[in-house]
Amino acid sequence: MLRCCKSEDAVAAVLAHEIAHVQLRHGLQAIDKSRMTEALTTLGAEGAKTLGGQKLADLTKVFEGSINDVTATLVNNGYSRSFEREADASAVTILTRVGYDPVALVAMLTEMEKNLKPGGLDFAKTHPSPRSRIDDIERLHAGGKAPAEVPARQARFRKALGNI
Length: 164
Description:
164 residues; elongated
């Protein structure tokens, strides 16, 4: 991620995004959702085996692992993209409040977009595309005023991370 950051404001944007995940309790929600998904899948599969007749019971037993995988994937991946959008929106608020430029999140996502490999096994599998996130952030910050540039920040950034 640091390679996608060209300024201290961009590093602050990444941190604000991750802080937003914690603030919004996304990790805890994911754990709760995973537990609920597992419980409902088990109830459904066991119900089909016991109440659905012998043919359905046999079919359910054969495909039980696949049913669990499909259910978990559909439920869990469907929500992570919305969590990312929520975290981006909160990051814009956090950055504005502490005096960093929220548009730095756009700059970082633009760099990220340049480095993504289509069909790769990276975060593109569970995150919205950088372009759609950029569009969302620009709508959120439309008309927002960027804070005055602080030269000391960029100097501090170059000193700390200049050669990554």
